[in-house]
Amino acid sequence: MDAYLPLFPLKLVAFPGEDLSLHIFEPRYKQLINDCKETGSNFGVGVYLKELTTFGTEVELVQIVQTYEDGRMDIKTKAIQPFEILRFENPQEGKLYPGGEIAYLENDPHVSEVIYQQFLFYLKEMLRLLQYDADISKFQVTSFTFAHVVGLKLEEEFELLLMQKESERQEYLILHFKKMIPVMKDLQHAKEKIRMNGHFKYLDPLDF
């Protein structure tokens, strides 16, 4: 066991380094956030798919942006590190919310230059097709940086989170990009053809 964390199950994957904004309205999680504010402790976002999985991500409470009259809150958090839940308590003793003993997943950040350059090449093309405005040359990009915007399903995001080597995660995304980019190009071409319908067209004479 590495730690004991209050747990907040959500139907999402929080990637390390991600800024996550949440609206808190359930009484048990209002209590959780207030406790974290008072003690300065972090909490865990447990990944809920069809049921609660045994994995999640530790997050830090950065700011309570707004507290409403009924106790609801808008908060900002920062995701830190993935973990596995070793023992789950619902609710945590003496509290409304769950908690659990967790062990952090290891992370090997090393990746070969060949894989990294291939990853960046396909990522740039994917972001261009998505019309996502980001100059990735200005900061260090990892497999997690744009993982939420490149068309992964929730189950695929979860699979990515559990990988403990950056090289493995980048190779996983490269395969995803190779699959998605041709589809997106075909879709873009179809949209351009649709836009041309109903307009006067200049057609080159055919030499046959």
Q: What would your notes on this structure say?
A:
- With 208 residues, the chain is an alpha+beta fold.
- It contains 4 helices and 6 strands, in the order ββαββββααα.
- The protein has 2 domains: 102 residues, LON domain-like (Archaeosine Trna-guanine Transglycosylase, Chain: A, domain 4, Roll); 84 residues, no CATH class.
- Strands 1, 2, 3, 4, 5 and 6 form a 6-stranded antiparallel sheet that branches.
- About 3% of the residues have low confidence.
Helix content: 25-40%
* Tally of structural domains: 2
- Mass-distribution shape: globular
User: What percent strand?
Assistant: 25-35%
CATH architecture title of the largest domain: Roll
Query: How many strand segments?
Result: 6
Q: What's the mean pLDDT score?
A: 89
Give the structural class.
alpha+beta
What is the topology?
Blueprint: E1 3-6, E2 19-24, H1 27-39, E3 43-48, E4 52-67, E5 73-89, E6 99-104, H2 113-129, H3 154-162, H4 166-196
Antiparallel strand pairs: 1-6, 2-5, 3-4, 4-5, 5-6
Helix pairs in contact: 2-4
In brief, what are we looking at here?
This protein has 208 residues and is of the alpha+beta class. It has helices at 27-39, 113-129, 154-162, 166-196, and strands spanning 3-6, 19-24, 43-48, 52-67, 73-89, 99-104.
Give descriptors for this structure:
alpha+beta; 208 residues; 4 helices; Archaeosine Trna-guanine Transglycosylase, Chain: A, domain 4
